[in-house]
Amino acid sequence: MKNLQELDITGNNLRGSLPMCFHNLTSLKSLSLSFNQFSGNISVLKNLTLLESLDLSSNQFSGNISALESLTSLRWLDISNNEFHIPSSLGPLFNLSRLKFIRGDNNNIHADDHEMLNSLAPRFQLIYISLSCCGSGGPFPHFFYHQSDLQGVTLSDIHFFKVDQFPFWLLENNTKLELLHLVNCSLLGPFQLPSRAHLALSNLDISNNAFGGNIPERIGAHLPLLKTLNMSQNYFNGSIPSSFGDMSSMQGLDLSNNHLSGGIPEHMATGCSLLEFLALSNNTLQGVIFSGNFSLMSLSEVRLDGNNFTGVIPNVLANCSDLYLLDLSNNYLFGEIPSWIGNMSRLIALDVSRNLLFGRFPQWRGNALPLEQLAMADNQLEGSIPRAICNLNEGLIFLDLSMNNFSGTLPSCFKPVSLREVHLSRNMLQGPLPNAFRDSSSLVTLDLSYNHFKGNIPNWIGNLSELSYLLLKRNHFKGEIPIQLCNLDRLSLIDLSLNNLSGGIPSCLKVSAMNYVTEEYIWYYYSRYDIDSAKSIEVPIEYTVKSRSYHYRRRILQYMSGIDLSCNKLTGEISFETRNIMKLFTLNLSRNSLTGPIPQVFSNLKDLESLDLSYNNLTGNIPVEFAVLHFLQYFNVSYNKLSGKTPERIGQLGTFDESSYVGNPFLCGSLVGKNCSPVATPLTPPKASAGDTEDHGFIDMDAFYASFFACYVMVLLCIAAVLYINPYWRQACKAIAIFDKKKFTRGIKLSIEKPWSNCVKTWI
């Protein structure tokens, strides 16, 4: 084995430390141990002085890289995706004079402790280096000042400090540099161009830093051969330089998430004829989109959302036959949605939400459209949804038509089998819930809230096994909550509030946040549906928590779980199977006709943040065990028939005031201003029989009124009988009613006082 020159054991799931026998492989020139589970240090490799290629990537190696100091023949080194501690100065590699390629991504990058390295020049001249993620690299690595043959540099996701301008000197010193990525490096200051044109750089990415000021007007002259340029997520202001039009090789341009103003230069719209990707999102750009000459026929992805563009959707985009994504949302575009969109044979994503568009849903005719994501929310679109939408049945994955004025019912032919998200809220859609989504077995979000749907909630919803968010708020649904909803194992949010639902609450409902689902399922979900946040349209979901409505986006929704059945006509006792709601965050059952006690098992819901049981007919005591709900921020049991003492103000219960308990006449305690004395404490009433229909608390008021009336009548009859039997008393009392008219006119009430007093004395 001593004469072995090449060893490749890639991807064999080997684990543990490297065996000591590697120490004897002194003739090795190429060693690949990648994609295993080796761990520990690499000190056994320090004798392999003839190694020219070393690949240790995708393992669990740790410690420093000092063992590589003696590998003086090394030309190609890949130690990426491990747990090495690598100094940003690369000091341990300074003596490797033949080293040309380094990959060290996804390790622990740190600043070097030895400042003397700043004055030393390494013996290597690198061609390619990738040292991205993660850590703090201190000042910009000084060894770069001594490099002149670089062709590719990637230093992303390392936080440098004391770097107050773009390292333009790196371009001036390395005239062959083709790729430069400095993403998320905490760089700031102006973007300074090299003093002369750089004729090699084709890929520049400085996104997610703190560069500011204007983009240099002559950028097109100094970097004329750029193919991709990403300057997004910085603080650039001013207008877009027209010299971008001089970059005739430009294929991808991303200036999104800055503070740019003005319009899109016409020279850029004519000069960049090879441009495929254009992202100008989230700036303050204005004016009409592509108002002049237009030569960007190669566009495939256009993102102009989040600006102040006006005018109509430009018809020149109809000439972009390769267009597959068009995002014009969050602008001030008006007019109708053009019909030519229906002819775009490769368009898979269209978002024109939150504009001023009006008219009807476009009448797209012909063959099935390839659209997978369609968003037209928050416009002024009206009328019924036409049968043209049935052309999207084959591939539609995402549909958002919310916050418009659509009316009528969904076409019966609309049955998209691949649909994952449906947002039709805040329209005027009506009729029974259509069967459109009956076979959408991949459906994750169904939001039909704030419409006029009626009838029963269909049982087939229980067959949507992937459903996580069911939102049917403020419609006219009636009948009972289908027991089939208990078949939904992935539910995170269910909102059936503000309907006319009746009957009991199914005790078998299962609700849990996405982040509590097994890791295997999350991996399955994202891999199956090829979730790409950079290309997918995201719609926030409205949900009421702590009596206020909030909008939650995907990254927050994964931590949300809740049940809202408020404002219905539900009856019966509250009875959930605790194991099915253990990770519940919010529960709102207010404004129903629920009876019985508050379940003590709610005290086991350790993650509960909001509990609203107000405006029901609940009885019994408030469980003192609720004091252990440490995350409870909203608690309301007002306007019920609860009795006993209000809970002690300990734990989270100490943060709630009288408003949480008001309207319960039989509660006592300082919070409701009523003493809990033994006299005032009501006895527990006997259990009502099955025929009882009302509960009046401590006293049967009907019996009280009947007995009082009977006693009153008996007293009157006794007095009448006494007066009838004794004539003297009858005459004496009769004299009470005789008034002396003369004395009456002078203000004297009675003219006969003696007979009155005698009458009283005689009765006594």
Structural topology:
Elements: E1 6-8, E2 15-16, E3 30-32, E4 37-40, E5 53-55, E6 60-63, E7 76-78, E8 83-87, E9 101-103, E10 108-110, E11 128-130, E12 135-138, E13 152-154, E14 158-160, H1 169-173, E15 179-181, E16 188-190, E17 203-205, E18 210-214, H2 219-222, E19 228-230, E20 235-239, E21 252-254, E22 259-262, H3 266-271, E23 277-279, E24 284-288, E25 301-303, E26 308-310, E27 325-327, E28 334-335, E29 349-351, E30 356-360, E31 373-375, E32 380-384, E33 398-400, E34 405-408, E35 421-423, E36 428-432, E37 445-447, E38 452-456, E39 469-471, E40 476-479, E41 493-495, E42 500-503, H4 519-528, E43 541-545, E44 548-552, H5 554-557, E45 562-564, E46 569-573, E47 586-588, E48 593-596, E49 610-612, E50 617-620, E51 634-636, E52 641-645, E53 666-668, H6 701-725, H7 727-734, H8 741-745, H9 754-763
Parallel strand pairs: 1-3, 2-4, 3-5, 4-6, 5-7, 6-8, 7-9, 8-10, 9-11, 10-12, 11-13, 12-14, 13-15, 15-17, 16-18, 17-19, 18-20, 19-21, 20-22, 21-23, 22-24, 23-25, 24-26, 25-27, 27-29, 28-30, 29-31, 30-32, 31-33, 32-34, 33-35, 34-36, 35-37, 36-38, 37-39, 38-40, 39-41, 40-42, 41-45, 42-46, ...
Antiparallel strand pairs: 43-44
